[in-house]
Write a structure and sequence with these properties.
Strand content: 5-15%
Shape: globular
Mean pLDDT: 87
Helix content: 55-70%
Order of helices and strands: EHEHEHEHEHHEHHHHEHHHHHHHHHHH
Number of helices: 21
Number of domains: 3
Largest sheet: 5 strands, parallel
């Protein structure tokens, strides 16, 4: 039975949570701590899978408490439950908390958030790898992107459009901004899928706060021997652009097009995680690919124990990114393993990834990258020649620009 700890310094809040979540007693073992000291004492007695904490508590802030808990056990899912007017709380804890919920929070929203976090555990089987990934507060950006965002925000009149352009071309910044803007602090009726929308909602001051707190945005410093972050960024931007174009060609609505774009940009975020935090095993996987000419995700299973697709989806899911993004990241190599049987962002990302790889590695690699059975089940196989033409046009334009 999964163990969930709720922390608040107001007894009435804890009693309300107990009443709201009474139906979950058969599924979760729940504890309710009156303040951080009691929470740490309970944590010392036995581990928890999820911690839900208030932010403003007199003896220790929620961010400090979650930081202490992360140090004790990085694998714990850490959720902030705080007031609507405390957006600064989300910014302060952006490098520590996985998700942010707003008070008052109804039982169903709280239940769904916790269930979704717990369900992610099926993606990563290795407890050591789970601790590494869950302990990540930020992802590293390319030095050029980091310098560009600093320069723009440091100017007298920073442009939201320019800030959005910089962030949208950086995997790490995109993931962090989408994590924050989709938090319940904004009370939005639907998920935000595009960086342009996210930057407009957050504003330059909050973006600047995220940049200044190194826990939220950081530069890529640890470089594995065989990994090229620039190549990954270029590949991801190409996949995102082609996936969005495919979605437009299929007359998908704007939401699906935005989802395809962002999922395409983020589809290989797991490689970034492995290169920055598990460089040794990841280098070994890249060496296996070079020697045996097998797909990277197969080599990762041997050398790391999980694929970059699983690792990336796990972190993005913990961060509360939309299901469509998490599914596209998790299954972009193995779409048939997903229950979806119609055109979706996953379809566009899977096809775009295969098309970009075939353009780089040669047309012979296409058969190993594309799942024709999945495309047939999604009634899309007849569309492949149109998608190939789209990809050629985008890639040719990129080369000549």
């Amino acid at each position: 039975m999964m163990r969930v700890l709720f922390v608040d310094d107001e007894p009435n809040i804890l009693q309300g949570l107990q009443r709201l979540l009474r139906p979950m007693r058969r599924e979760w073992e729940m504890s309710f701590a009156l303040g951080p000291r009691e929470a740490i004492a309970l944590f010392d007695q036995a581990p928890f899978d999820v911690v839900v904490s208030d932010m403003r508590m007199p003896e220790m802030s929620g961010a400090e408490l979650l930081g202490r808990i992360r140090d004790i056990n990085p694998a714990v899912a850490r959720i902030v439950l705080s007031g609507h007017s405390q957006l600064e709380s989300a910014v302060c804890s952006a490098g520590i908390a996985h998700q942010f919920l707003a008070k008052p929070c109804d039982a169903e929203s709280l239940r769904e958030t916790i269930l979704r976090v717990l369900a992610l555990r099926n993606l990563l089987k290795d407890p050591a790898l789970t601790r590494v990934v869950a302990g990540i507060g930020s992802l590293p950006s390319l030095p050029a992107s980091y310098a560009a965002i600093n320069a723009e925000l440091g100017g007298e009149d920073p442009s939201l459009q320019r800030v959005a352009e910089i962030i949208s071309k950086d995997i790490a910044m995109s993931a962090k901004v989408l994590q924050l803007v989709n938090s319940a602090f904004f009370g939005l009726a639907r998920r935000v899928e595009t960086i342009e929308q996210a930057v407009t909602l957050l504003g330059t001051e909050i973006i600047k706060s995220l940049v200044l707190s190194n826990a939220a945005f950081s530069q890529f410093r640890t470089v594995s021997k065989r990994f090229s972050p620039e190549r990954l960024w270029n590949h991801s931007i190409a996949v995102g652009s082609i996936a969005a174009a495919i979605a437009r060609k299929e007359l998908a609505d704007k939401t699906v097009v935005g989802e395809a774009l962002q999922a395409g940009i983020l589809h290989d975020v797991g490689q970034l995680i492995l290169a920055a935090h598990l460089a040794g095993p990841f280098d070994a996987a890249l060496e296996v690919v070079s020697e045996r000419h097998i797909p990277l995700h197969e080599a990762e299973l041997e050398m790391v124990g999980s694929t970059h697709a699983q690792v990336g989806a796990y972190l993005l899911g913990l961060w509360g990114l939309p299901d469509s993004t998490v599914e596209a990241v998790a299954f972009h190599h193995t779409p048939a393993a997903c229950s979806l049987s119609k055109f979706a962002p996953l379809t566009a990302v899977h096809a775009a990834n295969a098309l970009v790889h075939s353009a780089v590695d040669g047309p012979d690699s296409f058969e190993g990258q594309i799942d024709m059975g999945y495309l047939a089940a999604a009634s899309c196989s007849s569309r492949l020649s149109d998608w190939q033409e789209i990809a050629r046009g985008i890639l040719n334009a990129t080369e000549t620009s």
